[in-house]
């Protein structure tokens, strides 16, 4: 097996045609077909089903394709990390994060510092929890931002240990409820689970991942009979601002985005805490850009947190 063969396979998956893939790869179609057949023979599996209408991946083929993507992503990560020209001349920061406003504020402040920097690349990816972890694991992101709680702590720490990832805590918060300025509960100083039972609950989409990957901290007794599942920040902010739905988070609000639209109100009686932190691969060095961004994260969390709560620092 060669990396070239894996690249061929990925191109076929994009084109869904060996003929078109061969054209894009600038190789002869028989050579491409032979390369894939050699893979099938080497691993004793059938990767592609060939018909007069084209090709499709078998179940085993899809599994093989998934591994091919991962291997190529890791190879690209190695090339990018150890490319000396890139290290010496270009400032690079790559971050994957759950949906937090303080991480956007930190990113904004980081970019403001770069006015005199002429060569840099910053990649910031808000995504579901498992993708945050995978991006760090595969080297696509230097840092990941997520939270642990009492309900997922053991699961996540075991997962991090298996994957060679380290978690550094930043701050802890009791949960807060986010609602719109016109919500019937807008004047409450604090809310209980019972107060929320008649209103739709918005959650971030996590695909088929288990509940331990949820972005919303588990709250005992909270029903989700009326649930709204979304994948992006714009949708959740629009729903909060224009309906009587709610969601749960750390309580941080970014005035530029949420002023006169969204409120955060403390949730009473919750037995859990939101322990926000960042992850990176073990035994990897922090670059100056990574260190600066983490410091800005701490500043943003402290400045944007709910005034009722003084965030607890550096608790595991």
Automatic annotation (TrEMBL):
InterPro entries, per the entry: LysR_HTH_N, LysR_subst-bd, WH-like_DNA-bd_sf, WH_DNA-bd_sf
Alphabetical UniProt keywords: DNA-binding, Transcription, Transcription regulation
Gene Ontology molecular-function annotations: DNA binding; DNA-binding transcription factor activity
HTH lysR-type domain span: 1-58
GO CC, one annotated term: protein-DNA complex
Family listed: Belongs to the LysR transcriptional regulatory family.
Protein name, UniProt field: HTH-type transcriptional regulator CysB
Taxonomic placement: Bacteria, Bacillati, Bacillota, Negativicutes, Veillonellales
